[in-house]
């Protein structure tokens, strides 16, 4: 069997290994709003909330603007927290939302609606890339705006929000409609190399943290970096060297040309199930406990890993494509 096929995107360096340099995992959110757009708190206080609650990086993505971030990560004497500029490009097509987050743009992205949902999304993706940013397709199931066909036609985008933790984002399958993971497996099974992001899409910092409000702390990304800089975070995201979580913490994820392996950080007496998932969402293997591994057979097309806990939390690890 040949090694994992990642060449189309250069998704990983040495199969998620960085043998020559020491790395660490950092926690962050890639979709956040302040009162400069439709959030309810000042940028300084938004950044301070994330800093005070154990995050290492934060991307502020106010709608159709770049909120200045230069001074926001200088709050206090800590050197383990950064704020990354961003922009949520907010377009519509026939009243359907076509939103794309541009992570770490060099200038404000410019885009306009097209003649179809795919063209509108492509314009946003192109606008993000032309501004030097990493594009992420946002909340496809909000108002059931974006379907697999819309995403499948896109070029130059390899990230989407498999879960957006606003209550109306329709993350799970119900009523005969496709949830975020089902959408992900549909795209992967069609051969599209795309990574799954969990974002908080935070708007609400004031008042009570009730289920229907868009408050912080619901879900995040954990990214493996050599150093904590915007460039290093975005480079790791581009390679797929991260996992997405609503609470499950992983000690490590390692992929070789032979297997996919992960280790879970225990939380009290919580029980864990790990599923290795392949083409059309098929469960290839299921493990219990704090360590899980899957040996590649060579005919899977892709393999991704999902961990869920007895506490109702989960972690989603990124897919790798297999080629005989």
Note down, in words, how this protein is organized.
With 324 residues, the protein is an alpha+beta fold. It is 15% helix and 30% strand. It has helices at 43-52, 117-130, 148-152, 180-189, 230-239; strands at residues 24-29, 57-60, 82-93, 96-103, 134-137, 159-164, 195-199, 220-225, 242-245, 250-255, 259-264, 272-277, 283-288, 291-295, 302-309, 314-317, 320-321. The strands form three sheets. Strands 1, 2, 3, 4, 5, 8, 9, 12, 13, 15, 16 and 17 form a twelve-stranded mixed sheet that branches. A three-stranded antiparallel sheet has the order 10-11-14, with no helix packed on it. It has a two-stranded parallel sheet with strand order 6-7. 47% of the residues are buried.
List the helices and strands and how they pair.
Blueprint: E1 24-29, H1 43-52, E2 57-60, E3 82-93, E4 96-103, H2 117-130, E5 134-137, H3 148-152, E6 159-164, H4 180-189, E7 195-199, E8 220-225, H5 230-239, E9 242-245, E10 250-255, E11 259-264, E12 272-277, E13 283-288, E14 291-295, E15 302-309, E16 314-317, E17 320-321
Parallel strand pairs: 1-2, 2-3, 6-7
Antiparallel strand pairs: 1-8, 3-4, 4-5, 8-9, 9-16, 10-11, 11-14, 12-13, 12-15, 15-16, 15-17
Concise structural overview:
By secondary structure, this protein is of the alpha+beta class.
């Amino acid at each position: 069997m040949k090694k994992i096929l990642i060449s189309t995107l250069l998704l990983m360096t040495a199969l998620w290994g960085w043998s020559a340099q020491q790395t660490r995992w950092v926690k962050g959110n890639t979709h956040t709003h302040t009162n400069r757009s439709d959030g309810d708190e000042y940028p300084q206080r938004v950044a301070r909330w994330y800093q005070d609650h154990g995050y290492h990086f934060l991307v502020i993505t106010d709608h159709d603007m770049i909120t200045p971030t230069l001074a926001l990560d200088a709050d206090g004497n800590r050197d383990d927290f950064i704020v990354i500029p961003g922009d949520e490009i907010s377009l519509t097509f026939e009243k359907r939302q076509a939103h794309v987050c541009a992570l770490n743009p060099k200038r404000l992205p410019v885009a306009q609606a097209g003649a179809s949902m795919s063209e509108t999304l492509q314009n946003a993706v192109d606008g993000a890339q032309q501004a030097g940013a990493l594009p992420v397709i946002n909340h496809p199931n909000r108002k059931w705006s974006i379907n697999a066909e819309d995403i499948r036609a896109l070029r130059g985008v390899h990230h989407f929000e498999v879960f957006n933790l606003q209550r109306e984002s329709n993350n799970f399958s119900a009523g005969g409609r496709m949830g975020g993971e089902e959408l992900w497996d549909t795209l992967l099974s069609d051969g599209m190399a795309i990574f799954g992001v969990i974002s908080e899409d935070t708007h609400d910092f004031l008042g009570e943290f009730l289920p229907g409000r868009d408050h912080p702390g619901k879900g995040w990304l954990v990214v493996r970096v050599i150093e904590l800089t915007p460039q290093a975070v975005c480079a790791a995201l581009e390679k797929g060297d991260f996992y997405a979580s609503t609470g499950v913490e992983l000690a490590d994820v390692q992929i070789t040309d032979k297997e996919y392996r992960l280790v879970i950080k225990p939380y009290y007496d919580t029980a864990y199930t790990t599923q290795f998932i392949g083409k059309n969402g098929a469960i290839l293997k299921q493990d219990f406990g704090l360590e899980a591994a899957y040996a590649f057979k060579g005919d899977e097309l892709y393999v991704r890993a999902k961990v869920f806990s007895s506490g109702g939390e989960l972690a989603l690890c990124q897919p790798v494509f297999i080629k005989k």
